[in-house]
Design a protein that fits this description.
- By secondary structure, this protein is mainly α.
- The chain has a domain of about 25 residues.
- Helix content is about 50%, strand content about 0%.
- The termini are far apart.
- Belongs to the complex I LYR family.
- It is a peripheral membrane protein.
- Keywords: Acetylation, Electron transport, Membrane, Mitochondrion, Mitochondrion inner membrane, Phosphoprotein, Respiratory chain, Transport.
- This is NADH dehydrogenase [ubiquinone] 1 beta subcomplex subunit 9.
């Protein structure tokens, strides 16, 4: 568990921004229809905005821990992976041939 981060600091902004990005990616993994995704993003943003003015570091820590637990609970076992990314269907499909001979020896 990390130490409490004070509200309205750069570290807190980065941490909350990372949580928001993870939430949005998770919403995209659960649906590929844009209208449903857009509705989910609006709801996620409203949840983040409702906790925008939290001043107590302990309360902020509790909210962040609950958010991380919710993200872990809602993670998708089969996330959307772009084809060219590691784990995608086209990743390393056409590898370059090595410069040295493939089969050693003098044939």
């Amino acid at each position: 568990m990390s130490s409490p981060i004070l509200p309205f600091t750069e570290a807190n902004t980065k941490r909350v921004s990372a949580l928001l990005r993870r939430s949005l990616r998770l919403a995209w993994d659960h649906t590929t229809k844009f209208q449903a995704y857009r509705t989910a993003t609006i709801q996620i943003r409203q949840q983040f905005e409702s906790n925008r003015d939290v001043n107590d570091p302990q309360q902020l820590q509790d909210i962040i821990e609950k958010t991380e637990a919710k993200l872990y609970e809602w993670r998708n076992p089969d996330p959307v992976i772009p084809p060219s990314r590691p784990g995608g269907t086209k990743y390393e499909r056409n590898l370059k041939l090595p410069a040295e001979p493939v089969v050693p020896g003098d044939w």
